[in-house]
Structure formats: C-alpha cells, structure tokens
Amino acid sequence: MPTDSKSQPSFSPGRRWKIGLDVVVRTALVLAVVVMVNYLSAHFFGRFYLSSQTRIQLAPQTMNVLRLLTNHINVTLYYDTKDEGNFYPDIVALLNEYRSVNPRISVRTVDYVRDAGEAEKVKEQYKLNSQTDKNLVIFDCDGRIKIAPGDALTQYTLEQIPNEKEREFRRKPVAFHGEITFTSMLLALENPKPLMAYFLQGHGEPALDDSGNVGYLKFGSILAQNYIAVTNLQLLGDSAVPMDCNLLIIAAPTVPLSELELQKIDQYLAQGGRLFVLFNYASIRQPTGLEPILQRWGVNVVADFVKDLKSTVTGDDVVVRRFSQHPVVNPLTQLSLQMVRPRPVGRVEWQNPSANAPQVDEIAASSPDSVLEGDPAEPARSYPLMVAVEQKSVVGVANPRGNTRIVVVGDSVFLGNYYIQGGANADFAGYAVNWLLDRTTLLKGIGPRPVTEFRLLMTRAQRREVRWLLLGALPGVVLLFGCLVWLARRK
C-alpha cells in the first residue's frame, strides 16, 4: 500500500541542513557587503574629483607648450600614495595627459613610506631633507631641476563643520593649480634663462611683495607662472632701463616722475621697448608725466573716471564685457573684467598720420550706459578703457630691443590682490604680458581647475545614529528575515 503522504516529512534531514546553511551563508554575505560599504564610506567618503568627465582637458596654452617641448623630461612623484588627502591620483592622471601629448615626458612614482630603498636614492639624487620634503613633484631635464611641493598645488578655504557643542572647521579644497604649476615648470626647463620684467618703484606704486588688498603679490605670481622673472627698478642717477629688460611695468604711480626718468622711459620706447602702464583714479588731479609720452604714441589718457550703474557690483566698479578683435582680449570674448573707477584710455585721432605711425587699437570699452564722474551732464555712451600699441617694423631701421609694444589701461586696482580674482582679471594679466613679449603660443591661459567634492556633513549625533543603523539595525533586519525564511521552509 502506498504510504500516506501526510505522514512523510517535506524535506529530508540533509535537505534541511543544506537550506539552513544556504540561508546562513547568504545572510553573512549581505552582512559583509553592508560592513564593507560602511568601511569604504568611512575611509573614502569625500574623495575629490577634478572633473565629471573621464578625460582631463588640457588648456590650449599647455598643449602649445607640450608640442614645442624638445627635451626629455623625467618626472618623479615622491609621494605617500595611500594618503587620501594629497590629490595623488589626480596628479598622476594629469601628468599622464601630459605624457600622452608628448612622449618625451616620463613619469614614475616613489612611495617614500613603502619603498625606503628607492626613497633614499631619490633623496640623495635631489638633495632632499627627509623630515620636511614630502609629497613632491620633481621635474628633471638633463640635471636642471624644478620641484613643486604637493601642498602648494591645491587652494583651500575654511568651512565650518556642523557641531552641536562647539565650532569646528576643516580645510575644504576649492581649486587645483596642478596644470598651472606643471606647465610653468616645463617652460622653465625648456628655456633656462627666463624673460626679465622690471617693476618701476619710487612714485607710490604698489609693491610686488605686498599681500594687502591693493598689493601686487598675486600679479607677481602670475608673471612667475608665465616664466617671467620680475625685479624692482628705480631710475636714479645715470642708470637707464637695463638692456636685459624685456618688459617695463609702471603700475599706479601717485606722484609725478622726474624729467630725467621720463627721458629714460622715452628712450627705452624709442629703442623698441615693451611697456605695460596701469593708471588709476588717484592720479587724475596729479598727472604722472607719462601722459605726454603716451600722447606721442597715439594714446590719450583722460583725467576723469567712468561710472556705469547698470554694469556694476559695488557701485565703484565697472563690469567690462565689450572687447574688440585683438590678441590680448580675444580669449575674453565670453568673459568679463571687473575694473575699479577706470579712467578712459583711447586712441588719438591724428589728422594726417605718417606712414610709419604706430598702430593703436582700443581693445576694451564700457557699456553704452556709462558716464564720466566729472561730467554727469554728458550723455551716456561707451568709453574706451585700454589700448594696445604696436610699432611695425620700419625698413632700414633696426631697434636694439625689437619693435615697440605698449598696453595702457585706465585702472590698476583691478590687478591688485583683492580684485585680481574678479571676473577674468587674472587671465587678462597673463594675456597682456605674453602679447607684449610676443609669446603668441601662450596667449590662451590656464585657469585653476575647480574641485568638486562629494561629502556628507553630519553632526556627531547623526553620525552615531547612522553608524548604529549600518552596523546594527540593517544587518539585524537581514538576519531576522533570513531566520524567518528558514523557519518557514522548515515547517
């Protein structure tokens, strides 16, 4: 007779143990995944990304420099590769892009924490101090060495951390300057002798080492990024503008220059010198003496300043968006400058210019809603704010310094430490000096890459609750569910 099916167990003992073991293994697997996710979030949460794209887009200036590079460059990353806060993966990715454009660049990494033998060789080769020299990017071209500290590649700001009991702050990365630094180093290695810029002093000009709002410390760093060495100059006694002066910068003199100084500057221009002049509203009532010299070169500096209440941020500044077609401002087409009380600087309208007259271009202007502070009754119109002058080659005439180039701007404050980060002011500074020096390959500048940070900020109480949720509640629910399934199948 057939056995009654109701009296038979649904599963054999072996089958039951197999199912039970399967539930336990699956539950342990889920628990392990939850723990690993929690571990990764605790250790790698807040990873920094330079771009949402998979490929880093190098700036046109960098591409031009890389294409012109003829020497072999050895790059050594002397880094702790496991330190999550030193941007090591992003530096490697950036240098790999350099190498893909020019295979003469080779990149290697020496982890000074985990590879003591190689680290000692690097320290001996480059005379490093084991205590202070850490996280370095070393460029070596046939013994010519440039070293970039890793800590200087990232710009930080202080950000407050939510805390119920006390105020806490952390350093939040906002910009990555790796490309700016690396490209300037390649320029330095490819051209052992930098171009020289002289910064006129003695008439109330801002100082290159002044970190105050109107100081020119940041402007000096832009010159350094473009591999231009800069030093102060005083035209005292019999000293003339040095013959190694590739660029003379006169920024915001507040007292008149002496007649002897003006003669030396006039002679410098006649020899084919390059001049960058920045006026400001403080010298309106007290001319500097440069105005007649510039007048002879076709530049008119007006003794007034422009106001534009429809294109302003603070009321004293003017946001400039009108640019002509000229190499200095062509890259700024979609950008703007933020100038402070700019003086009108325009072209002299000669009646009968000579055949060898310099070419004078008005390259930036205010909006049509602008007025002059000293003549508010004058109808609103657009005013030119800067000009570029170039003396073309004259047949049979050889100037010892080349062909004269001049850039005259009606404001100097916009390149001071406070305003130089406004709009495209810093970019303009780079474009202007590179045009003056006839370095057309560098007219497209490099900007810092913004850092996008994915980080969840929580209070300590919230972190404690989340920790118990991830480590206790979720795994416990999964385990309970597995047990219930096992009991249901057992029945």
Please, could you describe this protein's structure?
- With 491 residues, the chain is of the alpha+beta class.
- It has three domains: 12-45 and 457-490; 48-176, Glutaredoxin; 193-423, Rossmann fold (3-Layer(aba) Sandwich), CATH 3.40.50.
- The chain has ten helices and 23 strands.
- It has helices at 13-44, 60-68, 88-101, 116-126, 178-190, 217-225, 259-270, 290-296, 425-436, 460-490, and strands at residues 48-49, 73-79, 105-111, 136-141, 144-149, 154-161, 168-176, 195-200, 228-233, 247-251, 274-278, 299-301, 306-307, 317-320, 322-323, 337-340, 345-347, 359-365, 371-372, 384-390, 405-409, 449-450, 452-453.
Key terms:
four-stranded mixed sheet, elongated, 3 domains, eight-stranded mixed sheet, Glutaredoxin, single chain, 10 helices, alpha+beta, 491 residues, Rossmann fold
